[in-house]
Amino acid sequence: MIVYRSRVFQVEELRVRFPDGGEHDIAVVRHAPVVVLIPVPAPGQVILIRQYRASIGRETWELPAGGIEPGEVEEQAARRECEEEIALVPHALERLGAWFPSPGFCDEEMIFFRATDLRPPAPDSPHQPDEDESITPQVFSVDEARAMARRGEIVDLKTAYGLTML
Q: Are 48 and 137 contacting, i.e. CB atoms less than 8 angstroms apart?
C-alpha cells in the first residue's frame, strides 16, 4: 500500500516473505533510477557542481546527476542531465556500473557514466536546469576533489564514490 507519494519518490508499506520463510512488514522508498555523471573536461580534471540541498540545510559539492525521464534510455538521460547541470554536452559516454546507495530501505539505482569530449550545446537546445535548482559548476583537479572528500568538504556519497573511479 502506498502511504506517501511526492513528485520524486513514494513510500510503500507491504508484507514480504523473506528467503527463510518468515513474513515481515517493511517500508520501501520507491525512487526511479538516476544517472550520475563524472564529467572529465581534460585528463586529471573533473567538473563538480555546487548546489543547495534543503534536506541537509547546506550547499554541497557533487557530481551532476538526475532522473531518467519516462521514455528515455540511460545514455539519453546522461547527456541531458550533463547539459542541464554543467551546460556541456558529452560526445563520449562510458557506463561504469550501477549501484544501490541505500538498499536497506530504498530501491533507487544510481547508474554512473564517465562523460568526456565535452562541448557547448547547440544554441537552440531546450535543456536548462530544473526550476528548483541553482547550480554552479566548477572544474577541479582530480587530486583536489579527492582531497575535498578527505577533508569533509564533499559529503555526498555518490560523489565520494565516483571520484574513486577516476
A: yes
- Residue 46 near residue 122, CB atoms below 8 Å: no
The domain 33-163: what is its CATH number?
3.90.79.10
Query: So where are the chain's domains?
Result: 1-31, 33-163
Give Cα 97 distance to the centre of its chain.
Answer: 13
Q: Over the chain, what is the mean pLDDT?
A: 95
Predicted confidence (pLDDT) per residue in 101-139, tens digit: 999 999 999 999 999 999 999 887 777 666 767 899 999
Residue 135 and residue 148: Cα distance in Å, rounded?
Answer: 18
What is the rounded distance in angstroms from the CA atom of residue 51 to the CA atom of residue 85? 10
